[in-house]
């Protein structure tokens, strides 16, 4: 599913134009991005939790020269799914087929 699919479903479900639905979806995404940039935890009941976690510094290698490169500490975003959407709760009827475009398996 891509953003346009979400816009289409919102427009259909709420019986509004796609332009208004796209504005609403963009607004939600902008709010989520802003909260994550500030390091806030986002909890969506029944869906899951987004958290910003610190990442340790490390040592990497330049693949071309083999030279060691210091990797500075940073932050990463983690998602923990809620009980309702965990993989073990998804039924075979609702799971995407393996014939889906973009499937690498």
Give short descriptive properties of this protein.
three-stranded antiparallel β-sheet; HU Protein, Chain A; 105 residues; 5 strands; 2 domains; two-stranded antiparallel sheet; elongated; single chain; alpha+beta
Topology:
Layout: H1 3-14, H2 18-37, E1 42-44, E2 48-55, E3 58-61, E4 68-71, E5 74-81
Antiparallel strand pairs: 1-2, 2-5, 3-4
Estimate the strand proportion.
25-35%
Structural class: alpha+beta
Q: What is the fold-level CATH name, i.e. the topology of the largest domain?
A: HU Protein, Chain A
Return residue spans where pLDDT drops below 50 for at least 5 consecutive residues. none
State the distance separating the first and last CA atoms: 18 Å
Helix content: 25-40%
Short structural summary:
This protein has 105 residues and is α+β, with helices and mostly antiparallel strands. Helices cover 30% and strands 26% of the residues. It has 2 domains: 1-38; 41-90, IHF-like DNA-binding proteins (HU Protein, Chain A), CATH 4.10.520.
């Amino acid at each position: 599913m891509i953003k346009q699919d979400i816009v289409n479903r919102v427009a259909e479900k709420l019986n509004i134009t796609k332009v208004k639905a796209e504005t609403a979806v963009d607004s939600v995404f902008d709010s989520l991005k802003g909260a994550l940039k500030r390091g806030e935890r986002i909890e969506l009941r029944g869906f899951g939790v987004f958290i910003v976690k610190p990442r340790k510094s490390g040592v990497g290698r330049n693949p071309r020269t083999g030279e060691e490169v210091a990797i500075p500490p940073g932050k990463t975003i983690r998602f923990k799914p809620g009980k309702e959407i965990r993989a073990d709760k998804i039924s075979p009827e609702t799971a995407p087929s393996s014939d889906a475009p973009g499937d690498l398996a």
